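User: Hey, quick favor. My workstation is busy. Could you predict this chain's structure for me?
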Amino acid sequence: MVFSKRKMKQLFAFGVAVVLVICLYKSWGNPTGDGKLSLGIGNKNDLDHGGERLKYVHQRNEHPSLDDPQAVAPKTHPDADMADGFDEEHESLHSAKKQILELERKIQELEGRIPRKYPDVTFLNYKNRKRILITGGAGFVGSHLVDYLMMQGHELIVVDNFFTGRKRNVEHWLGHENFELIHHDIVNPLFIEVDEIYHLASPASPPHYMYNPVKTIKTNTLGTINMLGLAKRVGAKVLIASTSEVYGDPDVHPQPETYWGHVNPIGPRACYDEGKRVAETLSYAYAKQENVNVRVARIFNTYGPRMHMNDGRVVSNFIIQALQNQSITMYGSGKQTRSFQYVSDLVDGLVALMASNYTQPVNLGNPVERTIEEFAEIIRDLVGCKSKIVELPAVEDDPQRRKPDISRAKKYLNWEPRVPLKEGLEKTIEYFRKELARSNHSQRNIFVPETTERAWH
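Assistant: No problem, here it is.
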């Protein structure tokens, strides 16, 4: 690049000005250092002269009338001009400092624009790439489903009101061109264009859905109506996340999809149990009347990273208590049974159900049944603590037996759980151990899947 003489002179003058400003700024920032640097002097006479100047500035502060040129004759204070120059230098330094701070702010802003590194995402062309809506996508199960579908290369829209969901569950995707997060409550209508809808929005643990039972019912009724209405309008396929709680405290064991359930409609768990039962009824009413393409997954007990520490579920309660060497508390005798599946197995099942042509309800759970007491002992051994297992009074309407019949899932989806209990629990324990080790918010505990295949199979 060729510069004219005039341009060269301007650049030289600018460079000299910058050097002077930096030197002045350093001298102002180090008033107690070497005399030559702080006052710009080189000998004893200059030092005495600098002292006279500072003395005069002090006199001006004590006697403001000294600033009046008519009140004070120039001959009385020969250093007045020097003091004025001192003030001008101060103002220049103050201005330079502001400019430096502004430059630092702009540098930080530019650093924030550096492209982030995301998990590996498969490239799909427009024919194979789907635009998928996940309600409750910032929750425990929803965020893992987001990971899977994002890495498959689809475009994701996550809608969550953050009642139980957390932004940090999906923050590793924020800014990605295929990802969008909307803070919205689906009790209110949503107008977007999508190809598929996974309707997972709803509190799922007893303390959460009992905290606001009316809200829970609204989410599972009005929210489901809004999602089914959206699916009808845009012609999207919709999967409704139901629950094993539709079976209540079952009289039939294990529970097949043909079992109608044994639910207390006015009990403390009814807001969730009956809300999900109505959601299923609405789904098949829309399918019959409006030809909406629906899928219904009845989800059994699921565990894994990103669970809430205080959600009141068996896995999280036992792990936290064991990690803190507290007593492991069981509600009831501990003889009641549960079937636990790792979250990646559930995600595989949800995706397989959505891709299938099967429209009847499907159980997604682990058919291996264990007692609560046995489960407490397994977690205690994996953590390596010596916590005592304590029995507390039983919870009202707590199901005594829970085991899915997954014949349908095997037949129509070719699906069954594959992650061993020990492997899944070790990952979950490690996540909770990191969570307990956090002392402030800046210490992140983000569970990020590695790759599409290794993370899920």
